[in-house]
Amino acid sequence: MKTPDYSWFDTDFGVRFGIFTCFDILFKEPTATLLSKQNITDFVYPTAWFSELPFYSAISVQAGWAYANDVNLLAAGYNNPKNKNTGSGIYEGRDGEVVAHMSHDLATRLLISTVNTKQRGTPSSRTEKITITSSTSVNFQERKLDIDFFHYNLENFTSTIISGPDTNLEYNNEGFTCKISVQVSLTGDGPTYRLVAWSGLRTYGGNKSVYVEFCGVIACPDTQLSSCGYEPNFLSHHVQFSRISIRSVSKKSLFSYPITLTDELLSFPAKVFSFKSQKMIEEFGTNLTSNEISFNFITFALGRV
C-alpha cells in the first residue's frame, strides 16, 4: 500500500491551505490527517472529476465534503462537459456553497468570492446573503443534452416509490442501517421520487473496488428502478416536501457526508437542511433532515465511504 502524500502551503495572509486532488475526496487519507493532525480548515482542490448521477455529481460531492468537515474548500474542476468533466466551486463548510459552476461548453471561468477564515469550534461570521445568479448555474432542462454524466446502476438497491403523502423505508445489511421517512405533495407530470438504500462494494474506474453506503431520496425519470441515475424531466413538475428524515447507522464507516443536488445541478442551500454525525460505542450514527424543500431536486441523501 502506498504511503499518502500530505501537502499544504502557507500564505502571506496567514492561512495554511491543505491540498488534495480528484478521488482523494472520497477516501480517509490524506484529508483526515490534514484535518486532525495539521488542524487545517482551508483547502484547495484541483480535480478532473467525472460526474455520475445520482450520487457523484461534482458540485454535490464538493459541497458535501466541505459541509461534513466544516471547512473552506476552493475546488477547481477541469472542464470538458462532453467527457463528463465539469464542476467548480467555493464552499464555506456549514455555510454551504458560496459560488459554483457547472459548464455546458468547453470554456474557462474564474470564480471569485470573499471567503471568511475558519477556526475550529468557532461559529461562522458570515451574515450577508449570497445570491447565485443564473450565470453561475445551468438550467438543467435547457442544457441537459450538453452535459454528459455517468449513470450509477441502482438495480441492486432496496427502494420504494413515493406515491402518497407519507412514505417510509428501512434497510439493514451487515452492520449498516438506513431509515427514511418523508411527507410530501407532488403536482404535475414528471419524475418519480424514490427512497433508496444500499451498502456494498462498487467499482471505480473499472479496477478499484470500494465499500460504500447510500441512504436517501432521489428523482428518477420514470417508475422503473433501472431509470434511476439518468436525468429526470422537471418541466411540468413541482414537489413540496414538508418533512424528510434520513437516519443511518454504520459499524464500518466513520466518514459520512450529505449528498444534495438541485435540478440546476447545484447543492442545496445550507439553511434548508440539518446534518449531524456522531460516534457511538461501536457504531457511527448520522442524521440528515429537512422540514421544508419547496424546489425540485435530484438527490437528498447520506453517503459513506
UniProtKB/TrEMBL annotation:
It holds the Pfam family Vanin_C. It comes from the Eukaryota. The keyword Iron-sulfur does not apply. Gene3D superfamilies: Carbon-nitrogen hydrolase (3.60.110.10). One of its GO terms (molecular function) is hydrolase activity. PROSITE patterns: CN_HYDROLASE. Belongs to the carbon-nitrogen hydrolase superfamily. BTD/VNN family. This is CN hydrolase domain-containing protein.
